[in-house]
Prior knowledge:
- This protein has about 230 residues and is an alpha+beta fold.
- It has one domain: Gcn5-related N-acetyltransferase (GNAT) (Aminopeptidase, 3-Layer(aba) Sandwich).
- It has helices spanning about 20-25, 30, 40-50, 100-115, 130-140, 160-175, 195-205, and strands spanning about 1-5, 10, 60-65, 65-80, 85-90, 120-125, 140-145, 150-160, 185, 210-215, 220-225.
- Strands 7-8-6-5-4-3-2-1-9-11-10 form an 11-stranded mixed sheet.
- A hairpin with a 4-residue loop joins β4 (about 65-80) and β5 (about 85-90).
- α4 (about 100-115) crosses α6.
- The chain is globular.
- The two termini are about 20 Å apart.
Amino acid sequence: xxxxxxxxxxxxxxxxxxxxxxxxxxxxxxxxxxxxxxxxxxxxxxxxxxxxxxxxxxxxxxxxxxxxxxxxxxxxxxxxxxxxxxxxxxxxxxxxxxxxxxxxxxxxxxxxxxxxxxxxxxxxxxxxxxxxxxxxxxxxxxxxxxxxxxxxxxxxxxxxxxxxxxxxxxxxxxxxxxxxxxxxxxxxxxxxxxxxxxxxxxxxxxxxxxxxxxxxxxxxxxxxxx
Length: 226
């Protein structure tokens, strides 16, 4: 699955990309901000990938101007409670202080609330990761009561808080060179190797958004109708 909007592309993680992600994840630059800081072996990475390659976990490679820059996720989705856990990290240092992390998080959150229709998402953040705490608060995240004093703290976000807090970001995107709107979702052949493609297509069709649907070879393309 590939999602294009806000001037970036996010693509569903495939097995061919997991070694690149492992290298990112093991770098000091990324690892020091993570709850899990142990070295990840190729065998561990392979086992992890097979445990999350399903319809309850969504991992996406973020691409900007043709460069793969980081990883975003919506994991442990509970479809009955309409909840999940979100996260994103930028692996390229030159983009860390840019607007790209904001755009990546906006794109993932739009997918969560507009297509997945989750009611609440959570984020686990280390108490010493002040940058991430400030970043998440800009999106409307609040700390879950009772998490004070913990080394790793749980924060939550609902749709109303997200759209209220991020209205200003969508106004800024165009001026910073990121094109807003025109959401395009492409379901690719590998998505149909399991029931992922069928279930994702149903979510898209059941959303409140309107799409024009076309086919290109073995892919199904949903383009937001304006």
